[in-house]
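Issue 218. Parser rejects a valid record. Input:
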Amino acid sequence: MADKQISLPAKLINGGIAGLIGVTCVFPIDLAKTRLQNQQNGQRMYTSMSDCLIKTIRSEGYFGMYRGAAVNLTLVTPEKAIKLAANDFFRHHLSKDGKKLTLLREMLAGCGAGTCQVIVTTPMEMLKIQLQDAGRIAAQKKLMAAQAQLSSSSGAGAAEPAVERRPTATQITRELLRSKGIAGLYKGLGATLLRDVPFSIVYFPLFANLNKLGQKDPNVKAPFYVSFLSGCVAGSTAAVAVNPCDVIKTRLQSLQRGVNEDTYSGILDCTKKIWQKEGPMAFLKGAYCRALVIAPLFGIAQVVYFIGIAEFLLDMLPKHRA
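Output the parser choked on:
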């Protein structure tokens, strides 16, 4: 991935830039993924990713597809920076005298990266999910109110349902800190670890080995398009592999529920209820959306690392001062 000569500040800047670009490009698909994963049988508002996005634009406008994006854009920089830089750090320290890493050591490096990133990932995902899913719950309540009006005896003169104000990320954060302390922002930490650690164990070794296939010389970087395609393939493969864990994490981190939707006490309770009430295929909800999100996100990340934007900026600083 990144060369050993690249400094830690450059790695952090590269990771941050990659995250900002990637999130901006794919956030609407991520919103569709969250809403598809959260809807339960009997309360289906959307039939597919495209149906979800079309209905979101109609009811909430174009910017409705970017609800929760501010949280991601704020926290994705440290999150991606930690993930990519930590993997490089562990790969460097697990290598012996610069020799090629074994697959087991590559997986251990990925495990370390996935474990480190949850410090930022958990609160980021926690806040993002509340904002992303608010539109689905509001639309469901509006539909239920409309159905209740139609089923009433007269319906004439019935009051229009009140417009529900959706909370901001700041309001959610304050309420969680007030009621539950810092632990409130880390709800679903176990499920996040269960998703991110296996993801990194699969992603980083797969990317490294795919990227090597495009290297004509071990001492020369692969072309940028090879890094991009390797990031896309490795990212989408790892995303689909851990999608069941992502469904569980999304359900556990959702504070608001739709009408007649289940609540869960933990990972095992959530897994059991989904399996019994929705069937095994429910664990693949949003899998193709997640693959579409992760593939370009990590493809872009690897290209940014390849180009070395941060190294260029850092090199220019002394010249500019002079």
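Fixed in the parser; the record now loads. The two ends are 33 Å apart (CA to CA).
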